[in-house]
Amino acid sequence: MLELEDVSVSLGGRDVVSHVSARVGRGAWLGVVGPNGAGKSTLIRAIVGLLRHEGHIRLGGREYRATERRARARAVAYVPQRPVLPASMNVTDYVLLGRSAHHSYLGAETAEDLSVAGQVLERLELASFARKVLGELSGGEQQRAVLARALVQEAPVLVMDEPTTSLDLGHAQLVLELTDQLRQESGLSVLCSLHDLTVAAQFAENLVVLSQGSAVLEGKPAEVLTKSTIRRYFGANVDVYHGPAGPVLSPARSRPSLGVTR
Amino acid sequence: MKKLPARLDRSVAVLITISLVVALFGAGARTVSASPPARAVPATFPVTVTSADGRVTIRSRPTRILCLSASATQMLYSIGAGKQVVGVDKYSTWPPGTPRTDFTGFETRAEDYLYLHPDLVIFAFFEGTLVKQLQLLHIPVLVLPPAANFAGVYNQITELGLATGHTGAAAKLRASLGSFVASAARNAGGRGRGKTYYIEISPDYYTATSKTFIGAELGLFGMRDIADAAGRGTAYPQISAEFVLKEDPRYVFLADTVCCHETPSAFDHRPAFSLLRAVKDHDVFGVNDSVASQWGPHTIEEFVGFIARVLRP
Amino acid sequence: MTITARQALEPAGDPREPIGTGPELRPAPPAAPLRPTRLRAWHLGTGAVFLLGSVLVSVLLGSYHLPPAQVLASLAARIPLLHVHSSLGPVGSAVIWQLRLPSAVLGCLVGAMLAVAGASYQGVFSNPLADPYLLGVASGAGLGATVAIVYGPAVWSTSLFPLPVAAFLGAVVAVGATFALGRSRTRPRSPASLILGGVAVAAFFTAVQTFIAQRQSPGDLTVVYNWILGDLSSPGWGPVAMITPYVGAAAAVLLACRRLLDALAVGDEEASSFGIRADRARLVVVAAATLGTAAAVSVSGLIGFVGIIVPHTIRLLAGPSYRRIIPLSLLFGAGFLVLANVGASAVLSPEQIPLGVVTAFLGAPFFLVVLRQSRRMG
After folding, report:
1. DSSP per residue over A82-114, as a string?
2. Cβ-Cβ contacts under 8 Å, B23 against chain C
3. Domain C87-377 is found in CATH 1.10.3470.10
């Protein structure tokens, strides 16, 4: 569904992402991990069309030009890391913004838009919040509203940039679970950057590790997340356990007396 | 992505261009001849008189004149048209006993004048659309803007005589005013020639050049305005205390005694002004503000007579 | 509901245990159909009644006494098929049809434009205190009007058009300069750079205008100030005809963009991600609001605060969605300015207080309230 081929992005003359290639099939979940500053957000913003890139980004086999914003919006939905939430806008209006690419540019929402949004709100257990304004919602409810707005785009690809940054553990899991269920039910392709490697490993079928803008590793979580790769690319000392849902990382205190070397 | 703004710029530019064209088209072209023609004196109405905005036809002898120009008020009462006046503006101070109103001539709604049921309205200035509004109400309007010289004053007297049906009295007033002015200048015997003066319109050194009517009155006596060196492009320039000191005028006329309560002694005590020749010679005079803003016959007689007295040996 | 969802997830317990496919979400009860924020008929009805009421009041009241019954009859006489006979004399008739009604309609156009432009600017710049004069319209129009009054031949002032045309040209030039300045070589215009450009242009144009005005005789100066302080008295239908195309076009564009203004609230990037070209929408809205404002102030002078008072009142009563604010600003802005003009005439009758003074008097405290509110929110 989503193919990246030799994608490079430069910001201010500096290559922030260089020559990344990756593929997310239908119904697949690709996790993007990497240390801070590795270029995860930049890559995601390029996929959504917010940054200019070199190389090829294909959605369903098609490359979109910058001017085809509406067509792209129907192909890829985006959950930003820090969404802007107008405090006085109600949930219905906010979620319906996601239908912008489906109804006429200046026109009102159609009955179909309303019914899609209604279904998504129900699916995300937000139906009873429909008339509430965003400012009254808790952090988890807000994040579900953002997810709802992205889902009503009915795009086959969902791109999420650290969707759990501002959530506590329970809400983080809820949002990811919901996404995963939708993926399984409807064949949604997910590309999601995550900070937490254990969580990333539990949801992603494949992981790609970005380091200094390059994709240095790609593969099944169990192959990618090993003690040595994590030490190498994250500069972290961890113990890796094999849980049923994938590798589980446990940070290990590195004591100089044990002679840990980097 | 970068190219988009450029294209939009073009569309905004096109939008702006179109709107300008529409605006200019909407403006239309209304040209009105403003040159006063030489005329014979008709005796009966309707008459056509020359207003600053063109020719105005007055169908019958006006009996309810609203005069919103203090100078025109003086002219009307001097030619015997006072009985036809139903209202004058708040600045019309001469003659006493006129039907004064609070109007200034700078109102914005013509409707406010209607309670007087005027059949002729006289202005000294154009205020926005006031003239146009009165025209829509079919009330003739005469605009007699500030005269810049004596010829201008005589013309306005003529027009008012025509407009009110007092052509004979108007001719008489012109003649008597002309001879008064001529004899005052003659009697001064060239004592004013080349003498410099400064007219103060406000204490922050706003003044008038010889291109104004008060300048023309002083010019009768051959006097020279210090502001002429400063008045590039404007008849009412603002100069500075330093400029006054540098030019050291022979006479000073304070035309801000009413508005700003200036007095010759206060003027004398301004910093460094004790050095002025006019101060040392006691040639600083307070005059009524109206001498700088009015050009009616009464103001002229007063001010010209005053200058003649000042110049008397 | 949040608690339910969390409880469902809590047994996950030990992270080494499989989370599995996750607990089934509780099936949600059938929801009521979604009701997005839309303009309701009663909103429009209230606005229309307010507007018509204001116009009626302003046509009935005036310093020249006309019996209300006769005025109403004169109005009704022009409605076809009603067969009402007007008993107003020619002067009364001219007062109603050539002075009061055109002024009221002009007030509607100007008030509607200023209010809707204020609302649009507030949306586009995400700044609750943005007003229609933000980008230098006022100073440009002021300079144009001053030049026309001072340097135009005297006859200009009586024929209607040169003053508004000059004011309009000045406004357009100023806004053009703002756009040129607000643009940087490397990036598309940002709202902040546009506003800074507007500040610079306004300062410059005001300086030139002051310089020119300061060199004039008192008569011309009074005319300049009268224009600046705002006035709706209209000699006949000329000014109405002149600005209707601009105000109409601008209002149509802004009405069409009302949904986009809501979308801009989430920021350019997110709006772009769901298919809205935020930069283009912003440019179109600003251009329409500015041109319309330029046309309006060219005939009315600089009437302030309408663009703050009206949209914020509507926001308070009808919520934050521009789908309501834009159309209601048109209706209530029109009625508000017409009523303010009635007030300006009535307070010291028969003397007229400049309209700009009245709106500023009402607007300044309002401005403070909005400022305090937005500070609390921010």
Report:
1. S----TTSBHHHHHHHTTTTTS-SSSPPPHHHH
2. 165, 168-169, 242
3. yes
